[in-house]
Design a protein that fits this description.
Number of helices: 0
Radius of gyration: 19 Å
Structural class: mainly beta
Largest sheet: 7 strands, antiparallel
Number of domains: 1
Order of helices and strands: EEEEEEEEEEEEEEEEEE
Distance between the termini: 44 Å
Amino acid sequence: MEVQSSVPISLYGIQDRDKGGYTEAYMAIPRKYLSTNYLLPSFKVYVGADSALTITTTDESTTVTINLRMEKGPLLYNNVNYNNNDVISLVLNKFYSFKLSHSSDLSGTTIQASKPISVLTSSKANQVTGKHSVNELLEMILPLNQIDNFYVIPEIVTRHTSTVRVYCPEETTLSIYNGNNRLTKHVEARDFFDITHHKISYINGNRDFLVMIIPHELPGGTGTVFMMTIHGVNQYMSTYDFAVPAIDNLKSHITVCVKSSALS
């Protein structure tokens, strides 16, 4: 589906399960910011679920190359078994969506295309602590030309604990400042590193990388796990418009991060 507007708009995709099931959403990336090179951010897979990617094309005859990164194999596609680091090549027509899923974490899988595409990462049912309700993880991911080497990870007011996962397209040395702790971590190309996050922390590196935050689920079904993209400092803007669902008894919170040089 393509949506065009005469004025700037925000567009959200929402996965809403029937009969009171779990719900997850993502903000759509405008077509002008889509590109041809992606690194898939995923997460560990819950028992009986899967990790998935969905590729959608914007032009005819788009060649797509998927270089798999997975914990175990094989992945069966088109009656062929594929294993870790194998390549799947496709030619897709305009507005075609291609989905691939597997029972292990697909983090680090690369997707390259001859023309701009969008890429969704998802997991149909997941949790972090293994103690409470599951939820889908769903996010439209940034192309590699939109990532950064310096990130501030804000506090999520309603979640005391989160997992921050850092994904590195190239071999990268990270400096992580988490509360009063400082850590230097070397991450290989197409690999990732997990951090347990409580308050504000920040990460910089010698190369660009991608950061996702996965707030942990809450007891008693009062809050399920979800996935959210953290944007780099160099992507900060001065004006934002966003939507808040009109749901009774829903409390919304806003966290604002600014550069110290912008404070007066």
